[in-house]
Amino acid sequence: MSRILINDGSNRVVLENVLLAKSTVARMRGLLGRRSLRTDSGMLIRPCQSIHMWFMCFPIDAAFLDKDLQVLRIARNLRPWQLAFAPRGTCCVLETATGVLDSINKFDRLSLE
């Protein structure tokens, strides 16, 4: 299912198409197998506490979010073969194309519509 992601503080649309990865298979697969990610699309992986870039073909940005979708940490420009560990309290991870999260800051609250 695709949803719209909004920054509650600025009321700005961050992503037009957010895919939800909730099943075990969908979470494990993540963005693997894709050659790129459009700047209006992303994937919200829930539950998720860390991510890896093994076998990825392109860099991404990742936002680590708590249960209320508040940003705990942003990892920018993660390149293939890197790891990213989540801070305590992380419930889910939002993966986007690089640069998409430039307008998002730590402690911003996001919402899905």
Automatic annotation (TrEMBL):
InterPro entries: DUF192, Saro_0823-like_sf. PANTHER family: UPF0127 PROTEIN MJ1496 (PTHR37953:SF1). This is DUF192 domain-containing protein. Pfam families: DUF192.
